[in-house]
Amino acid sequence: MALRHVIGVDHVVVAVRDLDAAAAAWRALGFTVSPRGTHSAHMGSGNYTTMFGEDYLELLGVLTPTEHNAPMRAFLEKREGLDRAAFTTDDAAAGAEELRAKGIAAIGPIAFGRPVTLPGGAEAEARFQVFQWPREARPAGLGIFACQHLTRENVWIPALQSHANGATRLLRIEVLVDDPKAGAEEMARLIDRLAEPEADGAWRVASGAGRADFVFLDRARLAARHPGVELEGLPAQGAAALVLGTADLAAAAKALGIAPGGTLAAPASRANGLLLRFEAV
């Protein structure tokens, strides 16, 4: 069990309507945000990244409408939020073939890049190869793809990995769905892993050792897990909450403007349609 070329969650993609305003909002939450990047022309998108140890968060926006970004534009017509999760792959071509061998119509591999401004002002290029699961394969509305980093040194830049809120990694992606068991089983089937029940009735799918888990749950269980946090602005179905590990709870509380001891979370109105939670690691 487990796909040989799918290692675990690599990053999450938060689709936003105003890219620069979103970057400012996440800086206000205590994150170090990269300089703005512009993807290859056929993608028509731009991004900002927030880098952690082995994973990261990407703010993604449309700069020019293209065929490639049509699904994201459709998503943004309805809402902002966590649209897709990417897995790390060590070989995008082999990973796509691995899916096809299991009867899953993988898309790709697709090559692209973006310019990177390094500390000190020098310019470099970040290059990637990705493959995608079929567009209709969206467990509880969450899209998935896999990313091979060809120039890791131009993405995981040490100066971008230190955050005022102490964030160090992605812990959980919490996905709202009417039937948590069915949602988890669909994700488990697509990435060849196990769906396991949680004590509160949610269902978990581990993406890989040391990487973020997916947790599928209904709205009542989401509310119970994040007491006192406003749930307005979250989708009826889809990725709703992102739980980050922090090495400094006091720093996270300060960044959020919350007294230590409370639920360390920001509502969707502060994080582009996503409930953002911090937990100690």
The end-to-end span amounts to 28 Å
Tally of helical segments: 6
DSSP strand tally: 15
Helix percentage:
10-25%
Strand order, sheet with most strands: 2-3-4-1-5-8-7-6
Mean of the pLDDT scores?
95
Cα radius of gyration in angstroms:
18 Å
Shape annotation:
globular
Describe this entry's structure for a reader.
- Helices cover 20% and strands 35% of the residues.
- The strands form two sheets. An eight-stranded mixed sheet has the order 2-3-4-1-5-8-7-6. A seven-stranded mixed sheet has the order 10-11-12-9-13-15-14.
- The chain is an alpha+beta fold and 281 residues long.
- The mean pLDDT is 95.
Which terms would index this structure?
20% helix; seven-stranded mixed sheet; alpha+beta
Provide a concise account of the structure shown.
The chain is 20% helix and 35% strand. With 281 residues, it is α+β, with helices and mostly antiparallel strands.
Write the layout of secondary structure elements.
Layout: E1 8-15, H1 19-28, E2 37-38, E3 45-51, E4 56-62, H2 70-78, E5 81-88, H3 92-101, E6 107-117, E7 123-132, E8 143-149, E9 167-176, H4 180-191, E10 195-197, E11 203-206, E12 213-217, H5 219-225, E13 238-246, H6 249-256, E14 265-266, E15 275-280
Parallel strand pairs: 1-4, 5-8, 9-12, 13-15
Antiparallel strand pairs: 1-5, 2-3, 3-4, 6-7, 7-8, 9-13, 10-11, 11-12, 14-15
